[in-house]
From TrEMBL:
Residues 38-61 are annotated as: NMPbind. GO terms for biological process: ribosomal small subunit biogenesis; rRNA processing. Signal peptide: none annotated. It comes from Hippocampus comes (Tiger tail seahorse). It comes from the Eukaryota. It is found in: Cytoplasm; Nucleus, Nucleoplasm; Nucleus, Cajal body. This is Adenylate kinase isoenzyme 6. It catalyses: ATP + H2O = ADP + phosphate + H(+); AMP + ATP = 2 ADP. Residues 113-123 are annotated as: LID. Its EC number is 2.7.4.3. It is an enzyme of class 2 (transferase). ATP binds at G18, G20, K21, T22, T23, R114. Monomer and homodimer. Interacts with small ribosomal subunit protein uS11. Not a structural component of 43S pre-ribosomes, but transiently interacts with them by binding to uS11. Interacts with COIL (via C-terminus).
Length: 176
């Protein structure tokens, strides 16, 4: 892993699972040597929760404990963070943020196949329709740090990987 590469926040999707962030993040880590951190897995392993949301049938993340858990790792750089929210992460942690976008019909099918129903399914699709995540990202970080990428097909995945790997190489070249 390049010691001098700063962190990448790979797609935070406040309520929009199913756009491909985990697949992209894991593959990107393999290709670049960066460290991949899935916030959902980190929270589960460390029991970093602050209750349970009955309406959405999911645990409520203890954001302060998550940030505390990650803080030291993030100061060393070279980390891909995969999560579906952004306002909890300090801007100082990242030099680039990627927001993946998926066609609503495909997203609906992906979420439905994961067992999402009712309000949870509808809210997630609406979040994508109204670009809620992108808007949240540009409010939380400098607009020039935030980049949208399409995530509909295997070709999109490969194109996104190539684009991010090229960006990573260029960043290293420019900062070494």
């Amino acid at each position: 892993m390049p010691q001098f590469l700063d962190n990448i926040l790979l797609h935070f999707v406040a309520w929009t699972p199913g756009v491909g962030k985990t697949t992209l993040g894991k593959e990107l880590a393999q290709r670049t040597g960066l460290t991949y951190v899935n916030i959902g897995e980190l929270a589960q392993e460390g029991d970093l929760y602050d209750g349970y949301d009955q309406e959405y049938q999911c645990p409520i993340l203890d954001e302060d404990r998550v940030v505390d858990e990650l803080d030291e790792k993030m100061t060393h750089g070279g980390v891909i963070v995969d999560y579906h929210g952004c306002d909890l992460f300090p801007e100082r942690w990242f030099h680039i943020v990627f927001v993946l976008r998926t066609d609503n019909t495909q997203l609906y099918t992906r979420l439905e196949s994961r067992g999402y129903t009712g309000k949870k399914l509808q809210d997630n699709v609406q979040c994508e329709i109204f670009q809620t995540i992108y808007e949240e990202a540009i409010e939380a970080y400098k607009e020039e740090l935030v980049h949208q990428l399409p995530s509909n097909t295997p070709e999109d995945l490969e194109s996104n990987l190539e684009q991010i790997v090229q960006w990573t190489k260029q960043w290293i070249k420019d900062h070494n």
